[in-house]
Amino acid sequence: CPAGVEFYPKQDEGCGYGSLIRLPLGLHLKSGCRYPFLLWSDEDGQLVPVAGSVADTLQWLAMAERVAVPTALLTAALAPRAALSTPTNTSLATAVLLPPRAPSTMTIHDWCLSQDAVTLIGHYVSLDYRGMGCCPFGEHHRSGRDTHPSFRVYPPRSTTGSCWYCYTAHQGGNLFDFLSHYYHLDSRTLWHHILSGAVF
């Protein structure tokens, strides 16, 4: 570790909030300067800013190569896991890594058909072998929580792409509808996240 530089995380485990991290381009309130992205310079023997201005930094960022997720990690990320502790938890930080970003020419309908709905929704809802689980949308369940599995996920049976249904609410839809409803995002915002390869 170079002198004067800290790397995070600084511990293997902890309780509650850990160390605060200053993000690149964040503003230092006293100096008014922004924190830069840094690269190691063999010539100077230290970390140096990638550019001298915010505009140049953004230009550098636009040319930065995206790193592909190794297949083994992607497979592990998409493996079924237990449902979130509360069905009302809609924080983007607790969601699932989506497959590589969609081409800009792809439509929402095409994207839905290209996904494995059972696997993807299985990251949000604990499903049994029939694809049944407790509905993550609590507003139409008694006490705001589905205590008896009333939510079913299945492979799309037609070109409409419908893949889930709640028997209590008599409501269903495709994968895009599920994510939009789960995160309370409008179609434009959700599609922007998907096209940019965002993490959900």
Produce a short descriptive summary:
The model is unreliable at 81-100 (pLDDT under 50).
Layout of secondary structure:
Elements: E1 38-41, E2 46-49, H1 54-63, H2 71-77, H3 108-114, H4 117-121, E3 132-133, E4 151-153, E5 164-166, E6 171-173, H5 175-183, H6 187-195
Describe the structure.
- By secondary structure, this protein is an alpha+beta fold.
- The protein contains six helices and six strands; from the N terminus they run E-E-H-H-H-H-E-E-E-E-H-H.
- The chain has helices at residues 54-63, 71-77, 108-114, 117-121, 175-183, 187-195, and strands at 38-41, 46-49, 132-133, 151-153, 164-166, 171-173.
- The strands form two sheets. The chain has a four-stranded antiparallel sheet with strand order 3-4-5-6.
- A hairpin with a 4-residue loop joins strand 1 and strand 2 (46-49).
- The longest helix has 10 residues, at 54-63.
- The radius of gyration is 21 Å and the shape is elongated.
- The protein starts with 37 loop residues before the first strand and ends in a 5-residue tail after the last helix.
- The model is unreliable at 81-100 (pLDDT under 50).
Descriptors for this entry?
200 residues; alpha+beta; 4-stranded antiparallel β-sheet; 6 strands; 24% helix
What's the end-to-end separation, in Å?
Answer: 32 Å
- How much is the average pLDDT? 77
- The spatial strand order of the largest sheet comes to 3-4-5-6
- Helix and strand content put the structural class at alpha+beta
Count up the helices. 6
Low-confidence segments, given as residue ranges, are 81-100
- Helix percent reads 10-25%
Strand content: 5-15%
What is the alpha-carbon Rg in Å? 21 Å
Overall shape: it is: elongated
Main β-sheet description: 4 strands, antiparallel
H and E order: EEHHHHEEEEHH
Q: How many extended strands? A: 6
